[in-house]
Amino acid sequence: MNAIKIDTSLQYSIAVTEFISDNPNANCVIIASATGVKQNYYHNFSKFLSHNNYSVFTFDYGGIGDSKPESLKKFSTTATNWAQNDFESVVQYVKSKKPDSKIFIITHSIGGQLIGLVPSNNLFEGVIMAVSQSGSWIHWKGFERLKMQFLRYVTIPLFCRIFNYLPSSHFTRMEDLPKEMALEWAKWCKKPNYHFDCIDNVKEHYDKIKCKIISYSIDNDFYATVPAVNWIASQFKNAEVTRTHLKAEDFGVKDIGHFGFFKNRFKDSIWNVFLEDLRKFEN
């Protein structure tokens, strides 16, 4: 395990952790985190993959974890920048470090939304999406929809105005978020077609991805309903997309959870499912 910082074109650095396989011919995996989740959450899973012949790279988006400045109040970045600057910088770093290796991507939640915006996403040769979804309000119903709307229309704008960042660690499992990132994310969530209604040429960016994509959903996921997961998976028009729904009982547990995939308790179950997916991408 090796922790480094890479410079970006937006004049802030991104913290990256490398888990390099002993096999010099190993292919590479980049893990794209969920919103406000530190990269170290994925480190045990990354070690598991590196012991199984993959060189793995995790990173913190700008403003998160080891990519966080002393104060978020004076730091500015957006969700779009997370894709087009942060994620892109990591892809370019991995390609320069391992030019002869294939690049596979594993996304968690927002990571699967961002891959369509990464300028070099045509380099991806296989993608696993763990509960990656649209955040649009239309994919929730009843009281859950009201909760989502209150968050987007009231909580996020109000707290960002008061604190100049989103203190989300006080009311969610997420880390605090940069103000402009949180506001842009909230804007996306207000639109029926999510970020497709907010960013120019999104469809063209998504259409550059032509590899195999395996998209996973689970039961009882407040953050990623099945319709929301279906929607984002359907936007990769030129990719070979496989949608799979995982049931907790198949893994001997009561609930998997939106933040459960990468926990150690799934080392002998879901992690092996992902490993088999990666091996399918090799062919």
TrEMBL record:
One Pfam family per UniProt? Hydrolase_4
Instruction: Give every Serine aminopeptidase S33 domain span.
Output: 28-114
Checking SUPFAM superfamilies in the record gives: alpha/beta-Hydrolases (SSF53474)
Report what the protein is called. Serine aminopeptidase S33 domain-containing protein
